[in-house]
Amino acid sequence: MKQNIFVFFPDGVGLRNFAFTDFKNIGEKMGFDITYWNNTIFSLKDNLGFNEVTIEDHSSHSLLPIYSRARKRAELNVSRDKFKDDVYPTYKFPFNYKGLKNIFKSLFTRWLIGLYSSEKGIVKLRKKINKLERSTSKYSYCKAQLEAHKPDLVFCTTQRATQSISPLLAAKDLGIPTVAFVYSWDNVPKAMQVVETDYYFVWSDLMKQQVLQYYPFVNENQVFVTGTPQFEPHYDQSLLQTRADFFKDYNLDVNKKYICFSGDDETTSPLDQYYLEDLAKAVRNLNSKGENLGIIYRKCPVDFTPRYNKVIEANKDIIEVLDPIWSQVGEQWNQVLPTPEDFRMLYNVCEHSAFVTNVCSSTVFDFVAHNKPCIYYNYEQPQLKKGIRDIGQNYKYVHFRSMPSMDAAVFCKDKNDLESLVKQILDGKLSNVETCKAWYEIVVGKTPTQASETIWKTITKLLNVNSMT
């Protein structure tokens, strides 16, 4: 009899990894009966023909946002004190004191932080959150779904969504094994592990070490290194278009070499448009000296600000806009969902660009999978003023300490150097590719093409262990 696995989407961020890759096909070939337990407004049945069980009750306890924020800040305080490192407070967002309601929420949150900022306090705070969520109608609703469908295991596609707490608690209370996939390379040090599950799947040995370091209540035998399906499409040759076809599809000039500018969200890089402007100036200067260059601007999929428009309009002879093929199905950032078609676009943007430039984005790994260099901008813009976040803060974050050396990316530390760096990369005199491959292995793991298969093999192993207990 086939074992039934619930692949749980608490929000849309896991779709890219677990609905639009070969993850499902690989699992079915290995003999699993796969049901998508869907908490999103994207219908997997209607759009992809997948078997799904839809969660219609999206209620959470009214105090959950306050307690969740307190938990995160308490964990960051503990990390600051435990590791004697001032990087952790920089992960915090400021409190809101506008209006009586926000004042009350902020003061109550601060009181909870003061009360629970210790390792024992965090455990108590997590238990309190679980107690609150067990009292919700969503908990009862999800428990009834699980009792009706009787899955053998629930695989949660991200560890960071509060919407996943009550469904996973329901599964655990019914004795159903639960697994959380740690979604992103920067999540663990940022106190973004919202859920507690029986097992955790992580990208790499580095991420496993971090989970054990930051969460003492997790045992080593609960954490498995599986890799991530995120980068598997970059090795799928069926996505490759010829240069001529790709340029024709997106109205690019076949006589030009293109540099990709990968945009950031406004929080990460609030002055990102000025880095695009700097690149345009460098390209214009190089073109005046005999080069024939253009820029592919690929925005951050969840950035809907008009901040780039003026720069793009002023440089429309140089900049071609290739928006990610994502679909907005709601108002929230996590309701802007990828489409399978975007895999092909991103693959070919990487393949047919000379290199990529951005502010601290993980697209450095997308491009190195295609043996393409990356320039990271790391200088202040003159528009920086009080209240605007300096992008230099990003490179101090814990996940950037995984770099084996500082030449794992080409850092531009002065805008006056940008033109020279671009020219050196184009001429083959400068590259970060080999060093970045070592960084890629540290972060992504040693077998980036086998993550989906490894996840299913590990699920098989866990089911066998649980069947004997």
Structural notes for this entry:
By secondary structure, the protein is α/β, with parallel strands linked by helices. It has three domains: 4-60 and 136-227 and 448-467, Glycogen Phosphorylase B (Rossmann fold), CATH 3.40.50.2000; 64-125, no CATH class; 233-444, Glycogen Phosphorylase B (Rossmann fold, 3-Layer(aba) Sandwich). 40% of the residues lie in helices and 13% in strands. Helix 9 (205-214) links the parallel strand 6 (199-202) and strand 7.
Can you tell me the residue ranges where pLDDT is under 50 for at least 5 consecutive residues? Answer: none
CATH architectural arrangement of the largest domain: 3-Layer(aba) Sandwich
CATH C-level label of the largest domain:
Alpha Beta
Structural class: alpha/beta
Number of distinct beta strands: 15
CATH superfamily of the largest domain: Glycogen Phosphorylase B
Which strand order does the major sheet show? 3-2-1-4-5-6-7
**Radius of gyration from the alpha-carbon trace, in angstroms:** 23 Å
The largest pleated sheet is described as:
7 strands, parallel
Number of helices: 17
InterPro entries: TagF_C
Protein name: UDP-glycosyltransferase
Which features does this protein show?
single chain, 469 residues, alpha/beta, Rossmann fold, 7-stranded parallel beta sheet, 6-stranded parallel beta sheet, 17 helices, 13% strand, TagF_C, UDP-glycosyltransferase
